[in-house]
Amino acid sequence: MEQQAPSKNILSTYQMGGLVFLILVILSLFYAGWWLDNWLEDAQKAPVKKVLVSGNKVHVSQESIEQSVKARHKESFFKIDVDSVHQQIEAMPWVYRASVRKRWPNTLNIHVVEEIASARWNNDSLLNQYGQAFDARLEDAALPSLFGPGGSEKTALQGYRAMQTLLNSENLTIEELYLSERFAWNIRLKNGVKLNLGRSEFVDRLQRFVDVYPLLKQQDKQIEYVDLRYDTGLAVGWKQLTEQEQES
Question: What pLDDT is attached to residue 128?
Answer without folding.
Answer: 96
